[in-house]
Every structure is written in structure tokens, then in C-alpha cells.
From TrEMBL:
Sample GO molecular function, one term: transaminase activity
Protein's name according to its UniProt entry: Aminotransferase class I/II-fold pyridoxal phosphate-dependent enzyme
Sequence similarity: Belongs to the class-II pyridoxal-phosphate-dependent aminotransferase family.
Keywords recorded for this protein, A-Z: Aminotransferase, Pyridoxal phosphate, Transferase
The UniProt record lists the keyword Metal-binding: no
Keyword Transferase part of the UniProt annotation: yes
Cofactor(s) for this UniProt protein: pyridoxal 5'-phosphate
InterPro entries given in the database record: Aminotrans_II_pyridoxalP_BS (IPR001917), Aminotransferase_I/II_large (IPR004839), PyrdxlP-dep_Trfase (IPR015424), PyrdxlP-dep_Trfase_major (IPR015421), PyrdxlP-dep_Trfase_small (IPR015422)
One Pfam family recorded for the sequence: Aminotran_1_2
Domain (Aminotransferase class I/classII large) ranges: 70-301
Species assigned in the record: Flavonifractor plautii
Amino acid sequence: MGNRTIGINPYLVDYVPKDYAGNMPEGEVKVDCSLGVNASLLGNCIFERLHQFQQKKVLYVGNCEQVLCEGSFNEIKYYPHDETLKDALADWYRKHGVGTGWLTGEHFICGNGSYDILCNINLLCLTGGKKVLGHAPQFTAYVDHVNCSGSLYQAYYMKKDCNYRFQPREYIAQMSEDDDLFIVENPNNPTGQIIPIDDIKAIADRAQSLGKILVVDEAYGEYMAFSNSAVNLIPEYPNVIVTRTFSKGWGMAGIRLGYAVGSIENNLLPCLKKLVLPFNSNAIAKALALTALRSKLENERDPFDTDTVFTNKRLLMDTIMQADKHGTPRMAIAQTASSTPIMTLYYTGKEAHFDLQAHLIKFGILAVSCKTYMGLNERAVRLMLPQSGEMPVLLEAMEKAIQALPE
């Protein structure tokens, strides 16, 4: 057939994507701790609405707006618009003390998951040969997109001897005029650690002094205080853009909906909107997201059940430490926050190429291998907290798995 690269980006021919989504081991799974879904909530308000739809064949958003009706599906035949959803997002943030006096629906862009937004930001800021400074470890699919687009991904490495703690001063020291874009995850995937807002502000200040954009990926942002969100920085730092998703804390990964928050006082958001595909998320996804937002706007309790996350995570961490306290330590927990549902475990024994994911699956625990994360390897896994009802199964299996680790 001739040249196999004809008309194709030659970099892609031999490039192996690092994304972990389709790379899971075989084995009997007792408890799934792999992909980052809020399995404990899964949007109870949405399930209630869908149950009403099954009974009455009508689904409403809010108190009056009909979204789905058996036989007509009036909303589906029209192209979807997102002004109502963006206004509800602004209401959500303002209710929690973020953006008071300035944040409106105009500051939001919706997309097919936050990854869709991140890819468009890359198109906005990066062309062939340009550089982005991130950190390792970091969301692997983002690294893939930068590399596949012909740009150069560089990383500040979170060091093992600091238990993979993000060190803002070291990241800032690595920022330079040669970089074209900066990106930081908060909370971090896969460790689940939270970077204090003052440290994010220092990074934003350095990026602004260099005349560059800082992306703060807050995919797991629902698991930290609103006061720690970088959305608070946008009035002072219009070079900051924040991405979030309905996939994690909202427990709605299947609807594939995310958004970005940014400044409209410069060219950042207006130019990004030019790259977003028209009608890039569907009407049903937006209707369900709007229902979730309005339901939680009316609900004063902890909207994401972070108390349960805290309790279950501390219980798991205590179990790991207790199971590994006899003899030479063989398992460590990377720097993490008690409020986030993910964590990184890494093997500290003597076997150089020990596959921790393969070891855990022998005991029925499905986790994500960190071999595709820059700065980590097969000796580490990312673990997602399961539903509360599955915690006893996880704790028992984890204790056995740790006791069976080679020294």
C-alpha cells in the first residue's frame, strides 16, 4: 500500500497512548476501585426524576420546564443550547460564596466532558513545537493529547522521597518564558492531594508575569472547599481558566458533560468559544445536569457526601497501615487528602518490577495501574473508594493482599 504514514501525522504511527481507561486486567473482581465515579451518590435526584419518568412518562427540570415527554420528545428535536445551564452553574458558585458580584453564565463554556474543554484549550494555546509545563503524575489522556498534537509536554516531577507531595516552589522555579501554557490539577489525579489556594495563586502570579495562561483542572474539585477553587482567582488573574466535570463528584460520568470558567475581560474565553464545536453536548445531558444543580441548590446538606468519603478513606488508610505494620513496610500511601475519593498506593519492597495491579486483582480488587502515569510505574496503583456497602469487602481483601506482598 506504499508509505504507511502518507497523509498521517507520523508521530501517531508508533505512539502508544498512555490513557488507562481501556487497559484493565482480567480476573475475578470483588470490588471495583478503578475509574473515578462517585458511586456512593450517582445523583439521587436524577434517579428520582427518572423514576417519575418511568411512572408518568414525563420528565421535568425544575418545577415547570418539561424536558422529555413520551411520544413527543419536544426538546430532543431541537439543537441544544446551554444558556440556562450556564446561568445555573453561576448560581451554584455564587450560593457557595464564589464569584459574588461578578460571576455570570457568560463566564462558562460547556463541553463533552472536561477533557473536551482541555483539548480545545490546547488548540487555543499550542501549535506544533510549543511547550506546556504540567506535573508528573498527571491525568494521562491530557498528556497524550499534547504529544499527539505535535506539541511538547514537559513535567515537574513530584518526588518519591517527598512521598509525591506537590511542591509549588519547585514548580514555579521550573516555569519559564519558553513555556507556552501551564497546567496544574487540583485535586491531583492520581494521588488525591489538594494544593492550597495560596500556592495556586503564586503559580497564577508567575504565569501572569510571563504573559501565559494557567489551566487549573479541578475534575475532582467537588471534594475540596469552594474557597480553594481557582475560580476565586479569576478577577485578579484573568489568565486563569478552570475546568470541571459532572463525572466525578456529581456521579454522572455517563452523560459526558464538563465546563470551563474563565475571564471575559480579555480574549481568553471569547477566543476559546470560537474553537468549541457548535452544540457540543446533548440536550438530555444538559437537562439532567440542570436537574442536579437545581436539586442541590435547594438542598442545604453536604452536597457531595464528603463526610462519608472522609470516613471511608480514613478507614481504608488505617487498614493499610495496620496490615503493613509487622516486619519491613511493603506498602505506602502517597500524599493525599482525606476528603478526596482517590489515592495512590505504591509497593516499597525489594522486587524492582513488581506489578501491584496484578497482585491486587488476585484478591478481587480492581485498581488502575500507574505504569502509564509519568513519574510512576507498575509498582503503584490508583485506588478509587467504592460504595459504602462494598467497603467491608475492600478492607478484608486489602488486608489479605498486603499481608501477601513480598518483602
